[in-house]
Protein backbone atom coordinates (compact mmCIF):
# COMPACT_ATOMS: atom_id res chain seq x y z
CA UNK A 1 0.00 0.00 0.00
CA UNK A 2 2.86 2.36 0.79
CA UNK A 3 4.37 1.58 -2.62
CA UNK A 4 1.16 2.50 -4.40
CA UNK A 5 0.89 5.74 -2.47
CA UNK A 6 4.49 6.61 -3.37
CA UNK A 7 4.08 6.02 -7.11
CA UNK A 8 0.65 7.59 -7.51
CA UNK A 9 1.72 11.24 -7.93
CA UNK A 10 4.22 10.26 -10.63
CA UNK A 11 1.57 8.39 -12.56
CA UNK A 12 -0.85 11.28 -12.77
CA UNK A 13 -1.31 12.36 -16.36
CA UNK A 14 0.25 15.74 -17.20
CA UNK A 15 -1.39 17.02 -20.41
CA UNK A 16 1.19 19.75 -21.00
CA UNK A 17 4.10 17.35 -20.53
CA UNK A 18 2.46 14.83 -22.87
CA UNK A 19 1.96 17.54 -25.48
CA UNK A 20 5.62 18.58 -25.21
CA UNK A 21 6.78 14.98 -25.65
CA UNK A 22 4.63 14.57 -28.73
CA UNK A 23 5.93 17.81 -30.26
CA UNK A 24 9.53 16.86 -29.55
CA UNK A 25 9.07 13.42 -31.12
CA UNK A 26 7.19 14.87 -34.08
CA UNK A 27 9.92 17.45 -34.66
CA UNK A 28 12.51 14.69 -35.07
CA UNK A 29 10.27 12.60 -37.31
CA UNK A 30 9.25 15.47 -39.59
CA UNK A 31 12.81 16.80 -39.79
CA UNK A 32 14.07 13.39 -40.89
CA UNK A 33 11.27 12.34 -43.24
CA UNK A 34 9.16 15.39 -44.02
CA UNK A 35 5.38 15.57 -43.79
CA UNK A 36 4.72 12.84 -46.34
CA UNK A 37 7.23 10.34 -44.96
CA UNK A 38 6.56 10.83 -41.25
CA UNK A 39 4.44 8.20 -39.50
CA UNK A 40 2.14 8.88 -36.59
CA UNK A 41 2.91 5.41 -35.19
CA UNK A 42 6.60 6.26 -34.98
CA UNK A 43 5.87 9.62 -33.37
CA UNK A 44 3.67 7.91 -30.79
CA UNK A 45 6.42 5.39 -29.98
CA UNK A 46 9.03 8.11 -29.62
CA UNK A 47 6.73 10.18 -27.41
CA UNK A 48 5.75 7.17 -25.29
CA UNK A 49 2.16 8.04 -26.08
CA UNK A 50 -0.53 6.45 -28.23
CA UNK A 51 -2.08 7.59 -31.48
CA UNK A 52 -5.31 8.48 -29.76
CA UNK A 53 -3.45 11.02 -27.61
CA UNK A 54 -1.89 12.60 -30.70
CA UNK A 55 -5.26 12.96 -32.40
CA UNK A 56 -6.73 14.31 -29.16
CA UNK A 57 -4.12 17.06 -28.81
CA UNK A 58 -3.45 17.89 -32.46
CA UNK A 59 -6.27 16.58 -34.64
CA UNK A 60 -4.31 14.86 -37.43
CA UNK A 61 -0.84 14.57 -38.90
CA UNK A 62 -1.24 17.74 -40.96
CA UNK A 63 -2.23 19.75 -37.89
CA UNK A 64 0.64 18.23 -35.91
CA UNK A 65 3.08 19.30 -38.61
CA UNK A 66 1.70 22.84 -38.43
CA UNK A 67 2.16 22.85 -34.65
CA UNK A 68 5.76 21.73 -35.07
CA UNK A 69 6.47 24.42 -37.67
CA UNK A 70 4.93 27.11 -35.48
CA UNK A 71 6.93 26.01 -32.45
CA UNK A 72 10.15 25.96 -34.50
CA UNK A 73 9.71 29.59 -35.52
CA UNK A 74 8.62 30.68 -32.06
CA UNK A 75 11.71 29.00 -30.59
CA UNK A 76 14.18 30.88 -32.79
CA UNK A 77 12.44 34.20 -32.20
CA UNK A 78 12.41 33.56 -28.43
CA UNK A 79 16.13 32.76 -28.50
CA UNK A 80 16.81 36.00 -30.39
CA UNK A 81 14.92 38.03 -27.79
CA UNK A 82 17.28 36.73 -25.12
CA UNK A 83 20.12 38.55 -26.90
CA UNK A 84 18.51 41.89 -25.93
CA UNK A 85 19.83 43.41 -29.15
CA UNK A 86 17.92 46.62 -28.51
CA UNK A 87 20.28 47.35 -25.59
CA UNK A 88 23.47 46.95 -27.64
CA UNK A 89 25.25 49.54 -29.74
CA UNK A 90 24.18 49.18 -33.40
CA UNK A 91 27.37 47.57 -34.72
CA UNK A 92 27.58 45.17 -31.79
CA UNK A 93 23.89 44.31 -32.19
CA UNK A 94 24.36 43.35 -35.84
CA UNK A 95 27.46 41.32 -35.00
CA UNK A 96 25.49 39.48 -32.32
CA UNK A 97 22.62 38.79 -34.71
CA UNK A 98 24.91 37.37 -37.40
CA UNK A 99 26.72 35.23 -34.83
CA UNK A 100 23.42 34.05 -33.36
CA UNK A 101 22.03 33.00 -36.76
CA UNK A 102 25.17 31.02 -37.51
CA UNK A 103 25.25 29.29 -34.14
CA UNK A 104 21.52 28.58 -34.06
CA UNK A 105 21.53 26.88 -37.45
CA UNK A 106 24.62 24.91 -36.45
CA UNK A 107 23.07 23.68 -33.21
CA UNK A 108 19.55 23.16 -34.61
CA UNK A 109 19.82 21.36 -37.95
CA UNK A 110 16.24 20.16 -37.48
CA UNK A 111 15.08 23.76 -37.87
CA UNK A 112 16.67 23.97 -41.31
CA UNK A 113 15.15 20.63 -42.31
CA UNK A 114 11.69 21.75 -41.20
CA UNK A 115 11.98 25.03 -43.11
CA UNK A 116 13.02 23.11 -46.22
CA UNK A 117 10.04 20.80 -45.80
CA UNK A 118 7.59 23.67 -45.36
CA UNK A 119 8.94 25.33 -48.49
CA UNK A 120 8.23 22.15 -50.41
CA UNK A 121 4.61 22.62 -49.33
CA UNK A 122 4.72 26.28 -50.38
CA UNK A 123 4.30 27.46 -46.77
CA UNK A 124 0.68 26.38 -46.64
CA UNK A 125 0.95 25.74 -42.90
CA UNK A 126 2.78 28.96 -42.11
CA UNK A 127 0.13 30.96 -43.96
CA UNK A 128 -2.33 29.98 -41.25
CA UNK A 129 0.05 30.85 -38.38
CA UNK A 130 -0.94 34.43 -37.59
CA UNK A 131 1.02 34.39 -34.34
CA UNK A 132 4.25 33.66 -36.21
CA UNK A 133 3.60 36.50 -38.64
CA UNK A 134 3.05 38.91 -35.75
CA UNK A 135 6.14 37.74 -33.85
CA UNK A 136 8.30 38.00 -36.95
CA UNK A 137 6.91 41.45 -37.63
CA UNK A 138 8.10 42.59 -34.20
CA UNK A 139 11.53 41.11 -34.93
CA UNK A 140 11.79 43.06 -38.18
CA UNK A 141 10.73 46.18 -36.29
CA UNK A 142 13.56 45.67 -33.82
CA UNK A 143 16.11 45.27 -36.63
CA UNK A 144 14.78 48.44 -38.25
CA UNK A 145 15.23 50.31 -34.97
CA UNK A 146 18.85 49.10 -34.74
CA UNK A 147 19.48 50.31 -38.29
CA UNK A 148 17.96 53.70 -37.51
CA UNK A 149 20.17 54.09 -34.45
CA UNK A 150 23.16 53.19 -36.58
CA UNK A 151 22.20 55.79 -39.17
CA UNK A 152 21.85 58.37 -36.41
CA UNK A 153 25.36 57.56 -35.18
CA UNK A 154 26.77 57.70 -38.70
CA UNK A 155 27.89 54.05 -38.70
CA UNK A 156 25.21 52.67 -41.09
CA UNK A 157 23.98 53.96 -44.42
CA UNK A 158 20.35 55.10 -44.50
CA UNK A 159 18.93 53.07 -47.39
CA UNK A 160 19.04 49.50 -46.03
CA UNK A 161 15.74 47.59 -46.01
CA UNK A 162 15.54 45.62 -42.73
CA UNK A 163 13.73 42.75 -44.45
CA UNK A 164 16.49 42.45 -47.08
CA UNK A 165 19.09 42.56 -44.32
CA UNK A 166 17.41 39.78 -42.33
CA UNK A 167 17.11 37.63 -45.48
CA UNK A 168 20.80 38.17 -46.24
CA UNK A 169 21.93 37.35 -42.71
CA UNK A 170 19.87 34.16 -42.76
CA UNK A 171 20.95 33.26 -46.28
CA UNK A 172 24.71 33.44 -45.81
CA UNK A 173 24.54 31.03 -42.89
CA UNK A 174 21.74 28.86 -44.28
CA UNK A 175 23.36 28.13 -47.63
CA UNK A 176 26.73 27.24 -46.13
CA UNK A 177 25.27 24.80 -43.65
CA UNK A 178 22.64 23.15 -45.85
CA UNK A 179 25.29 22.61 -48.56
CA UNK A 180 28.14 21.61 -46.28
CA UNK A 181 28.47 18.07 -47.66
CA UNK A 182 28.31 18.93 -51.36
CA UNK A 183 30.37 22.07 -50.74
CA UNK A 184 33.12 20.11 -49.03
CA UNK A 185 33.45 17.98 -52.18
CA UNK A 186 33.11 20.77 -54.72
CA UNK A 187 35.50 23.17 -52.98
CA UNK A 188 37.82 20.40 -51.74
CA UNK A 189 37.91 21.55 -48.14
CA UNK A 190 36.23 20.45 -44.95
CA UNK A 191 33.63 23.18 -44.53
CA UNK A 192 32.69 21.96 -41.07
CA UNK A 193 36.13 21.84 -39.46
CA UNK A 194 36.56 24.16 -36.48
CA UNK A 195 38.91 26.39 -38.47
CA UNK A 196 36.59 26.57 -41.50
CA UNK A 197 33.52 27.37 -39.38
CA UNK A 198 35.33 30.16 -37.53
CA UNK A 199 36.65 31.58 -40.81
CA UNK A 200 33.17 31.54 -42.30
CA UNK A 201 31.56 33.22 -39.30
CA UNK A 202 34.12 36.03 -39.39
CA UNK A 203 33.54 36.36 -43.14
CA UNK A 204 29.79 36.61 -42.59
CA UNK A 205 30.15 39.33 -39.96
CA UNK A 206 32.57 41.31 -42.12
CA UNK A 207 30.29 40.95 -45.17
CA UNK A 208 27.22 42.28 -43.36
CA UNK A 209 29.07 45.18 -41.76
CA UNK A 210 30.55 46.19 -45.14
CA UNK A 211 27.05 46.15 -46.57
CA UNK A 212 25.84 48.52 -43.84
CA UNK A 213 28.68 51.01 -43.74
CA UNK A 214 28.09 54.50 -45.25
Automatic annotation (TrEMBL):
InterPro entries: Homeodomain-like_sf, HTH-type_TetR-like_transc_reg, HTH_TetR, NicS_C, Tet_transcr_reg_TetR-rel_C_sf. SUPFAM superfamilies: Homeodomain-like, Tetracyclin repressor-like, C-terminal domain. Residues 16-76 form the HTH tetR-type domain. GO terms for molecular function: DNA binding. The keyword Nucleotidyltransferase does not apply. It comes from the Bacteria. The keyword DNA-binding applies. Residues 39-58 bind DNA. It holds the Pfam family TetR_C_29. Keywords: DNA-binding. PROSITE patterns: HTH_TETR_2 (PS50977). PANTHER family: HTH-TYPE TRANSCRIPTIONAL REPRESSOR SCO4008, TRANSCRIPTIONAL REPRESSOR. This is TetR family transcriptional regulator. It comes from Marinobacterium nitratireducens.
